[in-house]
Amino acid sequence: MIGSARVRLNRWQQAAVAVGSAVGALLDPRRADLIAALGETTGKPAFERVLERMKKSPEGRAILLEQPRVISVKVGHAWDLPANTFGAAYAKFMGSRNFSPDDRPPVRFMETDELAYVAMRAREVHDFWHTLFGLPTNLMGESALKVIEFEQMYLPMCLMSVIGGSARFSEKQRKLFFQHYFPWAIRAGMQCTDLMCIYYEQHFHEDLEDVRRKWGIIPAPAVPKQTRAPAASSAMGEKL
Fold first, then answer.
1. Is 142 annotated as a binding-site member?
2. Which residues bind Zn(2+) (predicted)?
3. Is 113 within 8 Å of 3 (Cβ atoms)?
4. 130 annotated as ligand-binding
């Protein structure tokens, strides 16, 4: 899913893919392949910074060395863990939405194997972040998580997703997001540890609240029922 799918592009080709992907994603946010292409073609400097941070972190170095994958065959044991654990919370999040960790588009436009892996890792741990921050996969939840991701990685795609997502809110939802969830997400993204330097799979067996405290995670405030955003495909939010 990483090496064999890669395509090398020159700068003009990258720009063309980025523009085409951006236009296509705006027209159809369900096109996960276009969202992924946009994230890759605009995100190289950000992924390079993430890679350097990972190399300076013990857990980050272990991730780069072992290159764990968040796929069913590797994380399936989470479904058998006690209910209070982080792994069980992740399994519940995935199962309640009928999500599969295998439904990720391949990385195609990263120049090196290391950067390709970092991009794939960011894509695959997205659902761990949903679980830790307690965010739903509707438009408001995805937009709030993208604010946190931008705070953490400075990926242009994250900022584009927030702008595009908020443009689709109703007036009431937009007010709720920018007065309530946007300030929370800024604070949460700044306070928590470096999310790309956590070897999540090694912490599946730990208590969910314990890992939240250890990593400085501030769970999301509850969304009032009358202002909940309509359910939407998570493609716009999660396919970097």
1. yes
2. 126-127, 130, 142
3. yes
4. yes
